[in-house]
UniProtKB/TrEMBL annotation:
InterPro entries: Sig_transdc_resp-reg_C-effctor, Tscrpt_reg_LuxR_C, WH-like_DNA-bd_sf. Residues 4-69 form the HTH luxR-type domain. Keywords: DNA-binding, Transcription, Transcription regulation. GO terms for biological process: regulation of DNA-templated transcription. SUPFAM superfamilies: C-terminal effector domain of the bipartite response regulators (SSF46894). This is HTH luxR-type domain-containing protein. GO terms for molecular function: DNA binding.
């Protein structure tokens, strides 16, 4: 499921948590500590977020999420 296939975008609860923290300008290490996961897992979630939103970066993901009303 991604923005390209016309289906509604559905991020997991964890992906939304990561996205909110990215929007709050947190780095991977801070996000990992806050969520009790490793930095590689943060990057994995970001990869999935980018695939689903059709973006290629943290900034792009946040901008697209705001446009789609996934985050305020």
């Amino acid at each position: 499921m991604s923005i390209d296939d016309g289906e509604p975008i559905s991020l997991t609860e964890r992906e939304l948590e990561v996205l909110h923290l990215i929007a709050a300008e947190k780095i991977d290490k801070e996000i990992a500590l806050r969520l009790g996961i490793c930095e590689r897992t943060v990057r994995y979630h970001l990869e999935n977020i980018n695939k689903k939103l059709g973006t290629m970066s943290r900034v792009g993901a946040v901008a697209q999420a705001v446009r789609l009303n996934l985050i305020p």
